[in-house]
Design brief:
about 190 residues; mainly alpha; 7 helices
Length: about 190
Amino acid sequence: MIYVQMLLSFLQIGLFSFGGGYAALPLIDSQIVKLHGWLTMTEFTDVLTISQMTPGPIAINAATFVGMRIAGAAGALAATLGCILPSTVVAIVLAKIYYKYREMSVMKGVMNGLRPAVVAMIASAGLSIMIQALWADGVVSFAADKMDFIAAAIFIASLIVLRIFKPNQIIVMAAAGVIGGAAYLLL
């Protein structure tokens, strides 16, 4: 039964995650953490971190990791299939429609209307991850005992380095991991 639930949950995620992996994160959170309770928010954040570090699309990596964590290899297969099947079918159908009608004003209007929604979904996912990373209980509070100041300092420093110097993001991730590991070991 768990395999069918995973397949159906990730079918929904795959069907409604317009805009790629980051846009799927709020949907994955909703299905996996909130609706089914398969993972805690902390475990979900760990899955996202691993999904971003491994090659491949984030949503598919997350589906595979969640499936493996919950129901082993068969769960990973069910979750991954559920995640990729809708997008594959929809992409083929939409590509045919788009190439046939791409010059129509209605098609241009639909595409322009989807962009702000996709940006909002990505921003929502980013804020959720940031809140989980900086506040252990997931509730924003600037009290000294509630906020992870090491994580906040690494976040701000990484953001500044990325915006000003524009280095390779992998180098920034690796440096943040080393600095965070050292800081948490020493403090």
